[in-house]
Write a structure and sequence with these properties.
2 copies of one chain form a homodimer. With 179 residues, the first copy, chain A, is mainly alpha-helical. The first copy, chain A, has 2 domains: 81 residues, Winged helix-like DNA-binding domain superfamily/Winged helix DNA-binding domain (Arc Repressor Mutant, subunit A), CATH 1.10.10; 89 residues, no CATH class. Chain A has 8 helices and 3 strands. In chain A, a hairpin with a 6-residue loop joins strand 2 and strand 3. The longest helix of chain A is centred in the middle third of the chain and has 33 residues. Chains A and B meet through helix 1, helix 5, helix 6, helix 7 and helix 8 of A and helix 1, helix 5, helix 6, helix 7 and helix 8 of B. The structure holds a DNA duplex (30 and 30 nucleotides).
DNA sequence: CGGTTGTTTCCGTTAAGAGAGAAATCAAAA
DNA sequence: TTTTGATTTCTCTCTTAACGGAAACAACCG
């Protein structure tokens, strides 16, 4: 971890570690952490040197970060090399991540549940009716979550933040109805 | 996949597959899926037979599901064997999962960010000020998310559901402010 | 054309995790 | 105490992912 203050390396290492728990590989998360706290865009060479990882690894990791949509290519005048920068706004960053995770982790299940529920609907075996009901419950839940995500995604970031931040007030208002 | 209607095996297999994307192993997710759609509690032997996996694997997986808090032991009269049942209410199920994931995936980062931000606060090197600011932004975001989770957790399930379900209406109300 | 940059694709190594099976251990009921 | 069920531990295998290095390739520019 060359040329970085201790608190930065600490953060980068931790972010890499957590990355593995979030389903992205360590290097990918580290590179993202580095770019996120870098004021200027960095080129691939810079990243290699700072993190001490192989060039090919950096190249592939950058590609994955671009697939996620949280890292963009920047061209500096007078320099032919690609430079990379992370989405810098935290709210925007997580909006993208959440949308992407929904696409990968929710939508396939939603499709499968719809299919399963449909198939289940065609059987009338009394033994299967409980399973059928549970699948329908699950499907309903996933539909709801999916709708919620879609609405948050359409919303301007600030409104979404406001909803999250106002969680307690909304809860109090609605609490009476929910009981 | 013995003694199960096609839509059930389909669901169990898919849930197992998605489990790997959610960070739990395949067998653990499959067992959970099986228990979730089973009306009666199953014993370890049953699970072995239905899913065709090793007994030890079932034992360890059940333990992990109990650690997550989404599977409980049940004792049936006249049967000394442990029986297992999943949390059956979908909303309750995901409330538990989300709380648990927060504990594993958010809280450690929150702690680390607090530490990093504190360390960063002590340096006055002008070169580090951007990184410092980004870390503070990130910390603020994680604090907000954490608070939101805590509030949802304290809330009766129905209120939480109501907030999620009313996402669009709340968005419309707040939309004007957010723009 | 030669030099630089970037991507892609191999290959080989290493590390980590999942999974199965066997045996030892433990606990409680009969 | 004996028996049954459950957990724990250990070992072994298999698979996957990560990683680095090297080379091939394409694109571009001077």
């Amino acid at each position: 971890m060359v040329d970085l203050p201790p608190f930065s390396s600490n953060f980068i290492l931790h972010w890499g570690e957590m990355g593995t728990k979030w389903g992205v590989n360590r290097t990918v998360a580290q590179i993202h952490a580095l770019l996120f706290i870098s004021e200027e865009p960095l080129n691939a060479e810079d990243i290699c040197n700072r993190l001490g990882v192989a060039r090919s690894n950096v190249s592939n990791s950058l590609k994955e970060l671009q697939n996620w949509g949280i890292v963009n290519v920047i061209h500096l005048s007078g320099d032919r090399r690609d430079h990379f920068e992370s989405v810098k706004d935290v709210y925007e960053l997580f909006r993208i991540i959440i949308t992407e995770r929904k696409k990968r982790e929710i939508d396939p299940t939603l499709r499968n549940l719809r299919k399963s529920a449909e198939e289940a609907g065609q059987t009338n075996d009394i033994n299967d009716s409980y399973a059928k009901g549970q699948l329908e419950e699950l499907l309903g839940f996933f539909e709801m979550v999916s709708d919620f995500y879609n609405q948050m995604d359409k919303m301007p970031t600030k409104s979404a933040v406001k909803i999250i931040g106002m969680g307690d007030k909304i809860a109090k208002t609605l609490g009476g109805f929910g009981k």
